[in-house]
Amino acid sequence: MTEPTDERVESRAADLLPEELAAGSDDPRAQAAAILQDSDRRENDLEAAPDSFLEHRTSEQTVTPPLP
Questions:
Q1: If you ran DSSP here, which 8-state letter would residue 48 be given?
Q2: Fewest 10 Å CB contacts: which of 8, 9, 10, 23?
Q3: Per-residue pLDDT of the chain (68 residues; tens, 9 = 90+)
């Protein structure tokens, strides 16, 4: 697995979720990098979150298209 890119980490660090901000961090950039690494690991390994039910569908499978 590769490390998240600097641009991706900076973008994520700038947009931490309220609960992530509330938890506090001495280094938001390192926090963002860890979040992205975990996210990438879960995306690449569907068994990475064994207690979670992961379902992969496309938007066409989940949204009823509007009438023309």
A1: S
A2: 23
A3: 566 788 888 988 888 888 888 887 788 888 889 888 888 887 777 666 666 666 777 777 777 777 87
